[in-house]
From TrEMBL:
Residues 132-293 form the Exonuclease domain. The lineage of its organism: Eukaryota, Fungi, Dikarya, Basidiomycota, Agaricomycotina. GO terms for molecular function: 3'-5' exonuclease activity; nucleic acid binding. It comes from the Eukaryota. It is found in: Nucleus. This is RNA exonuclease 4. SMART domains: EXOIII (SM00479).
Amino acid sequence: MSKVDKGKAPAPPSSNWAKLQKTLPAPSTTKTSKQKKSEARRAFNDQERQSKKYGLNGVSRYLGKAEFERSSGQSSSSAVAGPSKITVPAPSNAKEDVILLPAPSDSPLVEELRGMVSGKGVLNESKKAPGNYIAIDCEMVGTGPNGSESNLARVSIVNYHGHILLDTFVQPREKVTDWRTWISGVRESDMIGAPNFEDVQKQVAGLCEGRIVVGHAVDNDLKILLLSHPSPLIRDTQKCKMLREKANSKHPGLKRLSEMELGIRIQQGSHSSVTDARATMGLYRLHKVEWEKQLYHTTEAYRAKIGKSKKGDNTKRKRDDEEDHVADEDEQVQGGKRGKKGVEQFPGGGRKGISSGLGVIVRKNGKRVESGAGHREEKRNAPTSQSGAGGNWWESVDE
């Protein structure tokens, strides 16, 4: 064999080799299922090692892989809480994609509600007023060990037609240990410029006062806001009898109800409290006639009670309220009658219709003596030395 000079380039392949190359199949670039499984297993093991290293538990271990998009088209490279270069002012601009499925019916109301939930409806000024019905939804973040406790981070309120009355991020009252971005849609950057809890709480209380509040598991929203609302003025879509029967569940989810009743798909990624509030209002409006018919007497009785109490703010309390303060009023009575509005005094220091308490149970000579007919009979047969001398039967009772 002849030796090849080191300084020279290798000879090009022969024409026969070039022809053979054309007939050979191109190398496959696709991965086999076995290779895919191997890579997935390797990635999972790397993730497990990372979670043990940093002590991540629960949903926190998956936050590093999730990507969440804003309506502005900007995306965050990492969902884990940390320094952010993007400032998102309150109220929130985060939106949730609403997918329109085939409508469950051809009713004009259903079409209107589908447009309302997706935010495509156009409202005139008259439909932007708060009105008598509002829907509320909140988003929470995790505080405490491993984010096990919840803290308010965003609250949204819409009116009967889906118009946004309030939508704002809220400064958590405790240190956040899990932003729960994968479901809440909230990031640390959203807290820049967000109002504090007390200010938002006052706004929510003012909007809820005297109105019917619609929500899904609304007790949780009111609890996180540290607010209460009269039960006759609450419409909870999770507790609605008609919706429970249709979903065949005692605790139907908002996502399932929205698909089933309105033909819309929500909560595909991170949630939007505006979309969820509109969805609950849509479900309420769909069943409003029958729902309100069931609660009519309860609601009207409550409103009548509130109306009477407001009218009587400057008048005296009713008799049942006065009986709680009998002792205080008796000290003001000096005897006889106290004018037209005074309290009439009767022998024994009592008042008409008010028991003196002496006729309950007493003991005479160590034996129990009942009030009523027995007392009257005993007094009638008592010696004249006691009654004639002006003595009373209870003066002879041994203590």
